[in-house]
Known about the structure:
The chain has helices spanning about 1-10, 15-35, 35-60, 175-185, 220-230, 265-280, 305-315, 325-335, 350-370, 380-385, 390-415, 430-445, and strands at about 10-15, 65-70, 75, 80-90, 95-100, 115-120, 125-130, 135-140, 145-150, 155-160, 165-170, 205-210, 230-240, 245-250, 255-260, 260, 285-290, 295-300, 340-345, 370-375, 420-425. The chain is of the alpha/beta class. The strands form 6 sheets. A 6-stranded mixed β-sheet has the order 18-17-14-19-20-21, with helices on both faces. Strands 1-10-9-5-6 form a 5-stranded antiparallel β-sheet. The protein is elongated. The model is unreliable at about 190-200 (pLDDT under 50).
Amino acid sequence: MQLVKSFFKSLYLQNRFFYVCLAIIVCFIVSFIFPRFFYVSKLLLLIFLTFTFLDIIILYLTRTGIVAKRQAPEKFSNGDENEVFLRLENYYTFAIYTKIIDEIPEQFQVRDFSIEKKIKASSVSELKYMLRPTERGEYKFGKLNVYVMSILGLVSRRFFFDNEVMVPTYPAFLQLKKYELLAISNNLTMYGIKKIRRIGHTMEFEQIKEYVTGDDLRTINWKATAKRNQLMVNQYQDEKSQPVYSVIDKGRVMKMPFNELSLLDYAINATLVMSNVILKKQDKAGMFTFSKKVENMVVAEKRSAQMSMILESLYNVDTDFFESDFGRLYADIKRNIKHRSLILLYTNFETMDALNRQLPYLKGIAKSHLLVVIFFKNTELDELINEEATTIQEAYDKVIAEKFSFEKRLIVNELKKYGIYSILTTPENLTIDTINKYLEMKARGMV
Length: 447
């Protein structure tokens, strides 16, 4: 009895089956008008039933007709295209036509996902598809369903494999290698970023010594040369590692979406990439988040496990929809970060009023540390500004958009007035612009 239930549960009638049935029914209807068609209809029905039975026998004669396996990555990279591989082994002695329906996680909101593939007799076929998650967390796969048809295509047999598999989605770790070599070589021009002019040395002075062949002529110390009456040069040593903290505002201003990702997720992805670049440049990388209080703190260090600690800390970061307390941020930085550090603050200011409320705290942080405030352009406003206004309402909207865009530029100038550096960027260029600013500061000997 169980075998019969299993048989009917796995047997599916294809569209071709119903089309043939419809054609035979039409023949029987016509035979009422033209009786000589009755025997033709009976013959067609007999042939149809024979082929259907033969199709069922062909598909069910082999107990294990096909074996399929999903090979998902151990973790997904948020905001990136992630590869999922499928491997299908055909144990039938003839070519089969398959329809693969993978029950992908509900977060992707895809209800019609399927892949059709012809597999040769007794062979293995491999294929892949891409998934782009847009939020961190747990993604659960369901069953992997494979519907098998023979060349007759009247019925299909369903196989299912791989019960629930959970894949966690982490910040965009796939971008680490993408930017790593570029940052080490300072070669970001291929991404449309201006070429950095290296200024001065990125090393600390150690001593004055006599010139020997091969020393850099640019390091000649002319005062010491005049005193000693022989060429003297400055000798430098590699600069000491400097602490660099990525500080992420997780208040409500960072919940704004862009290309299906929130500003918070862009900041998290940039923090992960920046931390890797900082460590590769021999500086100390650290991070923490804040809203009503400071959380997820990873002290700036240069140890081998630092990237793993930062990745795990960023995994569960989410906005709490509160207005962020910059006063608490200032107090915690003053209490916990004793050495002068580079602070990369990811936040968002839309108006001058919003900045002025927090400016005293930013000025306080900038007195003890090198502060870079990173906030975002509103690309939708830019599109509105560039459109031609044809009605009074459109003209009014355009003026308001220009006002907000102008205030963003005012914010940059206001921060500069108090010695606070800033990056005004689009979300998609956040990572590149931040790396570029960091490399520029290192080239100028500021870090």
